[in-house]
UniProtKB/TrEMBL annotation:
Belongs to the thiolase-like superfamily. HMG-CoA synthase family. This is Hydroxymethylglutaryl-CoA synthase. It comes from the Bacteria. Pfam families: HMG_CoA_synt_C, HMG_CoA_synt_N. The keyword Electron transport does not apply. InterPro entries: HMG_CoA_synt_C_dom (IPR013746), HMG_CoA_synth_N (IPR013528), HMG_CoA_synthase_prok (IPR011554), Thiolase-like (IPR016039). NCBIfam families: HMG-CoA-S_prok (TIGR01835). Residues 15-109 form the Hydroxymethylglutaryl-coenzyme A synthase N-terminal domain. The keyword Transcription does not apply. It comes from Latilactobacillus curvatus (Lactobacillus curvatus).
Amino acid sequence: MAANAALEVLDDDNRDSIGLLILGTESGIDQSKAGALYVQRLLGLKNARAFEIKEACYGATAGLMTAYDFVAAHPEQKALVIGSDIARYGLDTPGEVTQGAGAVAMIVSAAPRLLALEPATAIHSDDIQDFWRPNYSKEAFARGKYSTEQYIEFFQATWADYRAQTGRTISDFNALTFHLPYTKMGLKALRTILPEATETEQAHLLDRYQESTLYSRQIGNIYTGALYLGFLSLLEQSTQLAAGDRIGLFSYGSGAISEFFTGILQPGFEKQLAGADHKAMLAARRQLTMAEYENQFQAELPEDGSEYEIDLAMDNAPIILKGVKEHERNYQVRD
């Protein structure tokens, strides 16, 4: 998924200038080797700093901030940051309805064409047990109500810190986007600061929020990519955005760390979007029967070292996992 997502943002102008490749994920495939190295080979990229970051759903944001610093120090180079995950909770569990899978890829450069990140950010972190997955478990453990409470508190803390740092208010934003484990979670946080806005501003921000949730409603939770899926949804669904608008982004990773940061939409940002392609991709999906869904859910790669070949009949992606042989995953680019 990470490599396939990156194909959408790579072109002849940026491919050879990538000096940093970061994969943010909590669905790692190896206890030692970084998934970023698989991605580098599959994409045909040259030598680069390539590594994997883990901190729950915050991993892609950690990668983005690292890339920001890297590009500031090496403006002639670019960074590729990817958030890719499988959100899995188990059949007949409360979290089953929020499951999802997907990846979002971003190119970070000194001359951004979509969003220019601003330097001021606000961070809040603490050692809490709201959501975690030990090495021995394929499904996560979660304290749902507690996690929601912490998500809101962390947002309030970062929002207050950001306002104190910058002197900006809610009136300085055209939209606020959130990490979306499920689509109402960000709304619960947004509502805590809406009283700071006028009624007109409140209606505007709520409309933009709804636009940011459309893709998540169709795809589900994709962990590290969820915030950026929401941001992409906003850009491709809204007709009320313009160059120069300030967008706020709230990232949250259980365990927990959060960050509130901002960016300014760039002139011509609309040319960087692929809304029609994404709409067609979603429309091309086929609804599964319950039996098909449960069979696919329960299909797993072996964990005993045996070989396994995957039925690729339902996978039309350009980059695929064919199976496992001699303890190695066999990823290939289709001809």
